[in-house]
Design goal:
Layout (H helix, E strand, L loop, with lengths): L4 H4 L8 E7 L2 E7 L2 E5 L4 E6 L4 H9 L1 E6 L5 H8 L11 E3 L5 E3 L4 E13 L2 E13 L23
Antiparallel strand pairs: 1-2, 1-5, 3-4, 4-9, 5-8, 6-7, 8-9
């Protein structure tokens, strides 16, 4: 057992994102903190996703997603999209990216991505994605995972 692991992993710097996925009218979004750049040329991002979630099914079907960067004042959005719920995209402004994946208009910026391949990672899958487009949407500073406390309930998973 690693003592205080739940506190220590919060020291690894990374942001908080809303990942938009969809196939036609079936669209969903989820909060992710485990996103990172993995290549310059081509520009690629890696996204960690729970394969038991509905969003994973949509990602596999479509092969595309968006990574929407949240601002420091958007904790409520991170919390909202982090919960399992039906119709959780309702009430928010979305537009389609070039790939067709949903973009959260309120985000600071977004990356439009096409899945290159998947890798196993314990209880999650890693989707390695090529960035096909990106844009800055709004001003602000990004929300960091360390600023979210135990919003994701991860403290219960260490033990």
């Amino acid at each position: 057992m690693i003592e205080h692991a739940e506190m220590l992993v919060k020291q690894i710097s990374h942001g908080v994102y809303v990942i938009g996925v969809g196939v036609g009218e079936r669209q969903n979004a989820f909060t992710a903190a485990w996103v990172m750049q993995v290549s310059f040329d081509p520009l690629m991002l890696a996204i960690s996703i729970n394969p038991k979630h509905y969003s994973y099914q949509l990602l596999q079907e479509s092969g595309v997603c968006t990574v929407n960067v949240l601002a420091q004042d958007q904790y409520a959005l991170a919390e909202h999209f982090g919960r399992p719920a039906e119709a959780k995209m309702a009430g928010f402004q979305w537009k389609a990216a070039e790939s067709g994946a949903p973009v959260l208009s309120e985000s600071l910026a977004y990356f439009d991505c096409q899945v290159s391949h998947y890798a196993d990672a314990g209880d999650h899958k890693i989707a390695v994605c090529k960035v096909v487009a990106a844009a800055k949407l709004n001003q602000g500073k990004p929300l960091l995972y360390s600023q979210t406390g135990d919003m994701d309930g991860s403290a219960e998973l260490y033990g």
